[in-house]
Amino acid sequence: MKVAILGGTGFLGCYLVDTLISHGHRPALLVRPGSQDKVYRATQCDWTPGGLQEEDTLRRVFSGCEAVIYNIGILREFPRQGITFESLQYAGARRAMDVAASLDIARFLLTSANGVKPDGTPYQRTKYRAEEYLVASGLAGTVFRPSVIFGDPRGRMEFATRLRDDIIRPPLPAPLFHEGLLPMNAGRFRMSPIHVRDVAEIYARALEDPEAVGKMYPLCGPDALEWRMIIKTIGRAVGQNKWTVPVPVFPLRMAATVLDRSPDFPLTRDQLTMLLEGNTGDSSSVFAAYGIEPTAFDEDSLSYLR
Q: Which segments constitute the NAD-dependent epimerase/dehydratase domain (predicted)?
C-alpha cells in the first residue's frame, strides 16, 4: 500500500521508509523546502515539498494513500521560527487527522512518547492531546509510545550519539543527576532504550495488523537501565572508562531558565524534569505478538559509535 509519512526524513523516519519498502509498501513523504537531500531512498518514495501547516499540500501528499504515519516531534522550542510543541505535536497532528478523515483514509499511526500525561511538561501534554484527538477522530488509529530510541543515526540526531559527543568524549566526568542536596540517588533513574530497527518493524507489522486498531503500544527495550549504567555502557562502546560525579539538578535548572532556547545549552528545564522521571516500560507482549527479538542496549548494538 501507499503510506504517507509526516516526519519521514528524520532519525526514526528514515528507518520507517526502509522498513515500509522492505514490506512492499511505497512511502509518500512531506519534505520541507531545502530538505530534499534528506529523503532516504528517494527513488523508491513519492515526496512533496511543503509545510505541515498547508492543508492543500497535505492533500497532495495523502493522495492515493491508504494510511498515514504522523511521526513529528521536537525536543526544544524556537517560537520565533514557529517551532513549538503546540504547533508541531498537537495542531499539526490534528490537521493531518482531519485531512486524512476528509479523504477517507481510515488508518492512522501516531508517534507519541513514553510517559506522556495531561498534566506533564508542554512536550508531554501536546503529545497526550494528540493521542486524545486521534481516539475521538473516528480514524482506525494506533498510538506508539517509544522510550528513548537508539541506533545508527545516519547523520541525524540520536540518543547515544549525542551522549557520546556531549558527555563521554569531553574530559570532564560524566554527570549523575539527582534532586536535592544529598547524592543518595544520583544517576539511579532508569530508561529502557529501544533500537530504531525494532521500532520501525513494529510500526510496519502493526500497520498490517487489524488487531492493532485502537491500541496504544509502549515501545521500550528489554532492559530498564540506570542512567549510570547507560553512561558506562556508551563509554565501553567507544573504549573509555568514563568517570562519573553526582550533580544536583537545581543549578542546572536555574541556568536552563535563562538558556532554554539556546541550541548550545544541552538540556532544557523540561528535559531535566522528564529525564529524572525515568523512561521505562514493558513491551514484551508487543515483541512476542510480532515475533521480534528485542535488541539489547550493549556494546555490540552500539558499535556504530566507534
A: 4-214
Over the range 244-274, which residues count as b (16 or more CB within 10 Å of their CB) and which as e?
bebbbbeebeeebeebeeeeeebbbbbbbbb
CB contact set of 216 (below 8 Å; sequence gap of 6+): 112, 131, 142, 143, 144, 145
pLDDT band at 266 (very low <50, low <70, confident <90, very high): confident
Q: Is the dihedral of CA 142, 280, 204, 284 positive or negative?
A: negative
Structural Rg of the chain based on CA atoms = 19
Instruction: Let me know: does 249 contact 272? Beta carbons within 8 Å.
Output: yes
Q: What CA–CA distance (Å, rounded) separates 27 from 135?
A: 24
Closest CA relative to residue 39, chosen from 13, 70, 63, 68: 13
Q: Three cell numbers at 280?
A: 521505562
The predicted structure's pLDDT at residue 281:
97
At CA 169, angle to CA 163 and CA 170, rounded to 5?
105
Residue with cell string 482506525: 140
**Three cell numbers at 175?**
554527570
pTM confidence score? 0.95
Helix (H, G, I), strand (E, B) or coil at 51: coil
Residue type, 292: I
